[in-house]
């Protein structure tokens, strides 16, 4: 049952901030009473984006992208300090009666209690637990990439990069009838997850050739080289990685032109032009949530971080050398029982 509107008086909200120097801090946050058309949400879990939030932590967001990279409910200004994040799942505890008691997803930063407009919250299907629902933002990225790549039934598809986005991209591609999907990664431990999700795995040296479509998610020049060499003549390589302020060498010599390979950028912040007349961001998010109705996807959640440990643990998680898939913040350990 929803609590009274005095919940905001009885609780002080706290949020994670990126404060510079490769550090995070948990700070008090403003918390307002929900007004008509708003809800008060108690966070259960939020997912850390290792790619984007890693760039934020390392001050690797170029100034030209400060405006475009703003999260919907970000506070502060780049480079620091910023309250940043966009994958929160929680329970509505007050406000709009239509959402009372429901589990909802929102593009809110890492904060334990917050007020939002009702239309900024998307109900999570009842069959999907909160932790898995935090993967919705990553799955949106995968969906957008498929729209850009336009795979067809029967295609041989290669995904280079076995992080969360790469695994979800391969997972969705594998649902296309007749498709043959191979995940390529430098970490042989990804074999087990790929097998559980129903697609193939290979190390870069054994990556398949002559693929009909290739997705690249590794955020490395070596991965992009593998992706280009895996593409068949006339095929497309969908570049999903974002490198921040780093310059990346791309092998556009040799047979790149003679084989007429297409290198296409994909970015989740914009719906492809040919779909904009029909698709909204909410429709895309609702689809992403519905596609998470598969318990096997829980394998992608490799780390659970207690909120009280976040200031120390988040920088560790965002270390490029760490072997982390999805890292999820747990706001109340009692909810783990």
Automatic annotation (TrEMBL):
<keyword id="KW-0479">Metal-binding</keyword>
<keyword id="KW-0560">Oxidoreductase</keyword>
<dbReference type="GO" id="GO:0016491">
    <property type="term" value="F:oxidoreductase activity"/>
</dbReference>
<protein>
    <submittedName>
        <fullName>Threonine dehydrogenase</fullName>
    </submittedName>
</protein>
<keyword id="KW-0862">Zinc</keyword>
<dbReference type="GO" id="GO:0046872">
    <property type="term" value="F:metal ion binding"/>
</dbReference>
<dbReference type="InterPro" id="IPR011032">
    <property type="entry name" value="GroES-like_sf"/>
</dbReference>
<comment type="similarity">
    <text>Belongs to the zinc-containing alcohol dehydrogenase family.</text>
</comment>
<dbReference type="InterPro" id="IPR036291">
    <property type="entry name" value="NAD(P)-bd_dom_sf"/>
</dbReference>
């Amino acid at each position: 049952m929803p609590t009274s509107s005095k919940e905001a008086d009885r609780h002080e909200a706290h949020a994670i901030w990126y404060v510079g120097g490769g550090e995070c801090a948990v700070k008090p946050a403003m918390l307002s009473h929900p007004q008509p058309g708003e809800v008060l949400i108690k966070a259960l879990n939020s997912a850390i984006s290792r790619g984007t939030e890693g760039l934020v932590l390392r001050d690797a967001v170029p100034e030209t992208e400060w405006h475009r990279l703003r999260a919907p409910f970000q506070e502060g200004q780049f480079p620091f300090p910023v309250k940043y994040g966009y994958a929160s799942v929680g329970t509505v505890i007050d406000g709009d009666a239509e959402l009372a008691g429901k589990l909802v997803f929102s593009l809110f930063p890492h904060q334990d209690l917050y007020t939002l407009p009702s239309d900024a919250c998307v109900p999570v299907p009842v069959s999907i637990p909160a932790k898995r629902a935090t993967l919705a933002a990553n799955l949106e990225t995968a969906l957008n990439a498929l729209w850009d790549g336009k795979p067809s039934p029967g295609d041989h598809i290669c995904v280079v990069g076995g992080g969360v986005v790469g695994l979800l991209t391969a997972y969705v591609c594998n649902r296309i009838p007749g498709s043959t999907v191979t995940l390529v990664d430098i970490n042989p431990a990804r074999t087990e997850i790929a097998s559980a999700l129903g697609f193939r795995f290979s190390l870069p040296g054994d990556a398949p050739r002559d693929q009909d479509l290739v997705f690249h998610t590794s955020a490395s020049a070596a991965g992009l080289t593998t992706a280009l060499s895996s593409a068949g003549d006339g095929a497309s390589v969908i570049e999903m990685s974002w490198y921040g302020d780093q310059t990346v060498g791309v092998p556009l010599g040799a047979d790149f032109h003679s084989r007429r390979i297409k290198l296409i950028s994909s970015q989740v912040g914009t719906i492809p032009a040919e779909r904009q007349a029909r698709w909204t961001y909410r429709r895309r998010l609702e689809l992403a949530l519905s596609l998470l109705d598969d318990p096997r996807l829980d394998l992608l959640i490799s780390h659970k971080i207690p909120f009280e440990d976040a200031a120390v643990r988040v920088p560790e998680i965002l270390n490029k050398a760490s072997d982390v898939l999805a890292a999820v913040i747990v706001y109340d350990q009692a909810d783990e029982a």
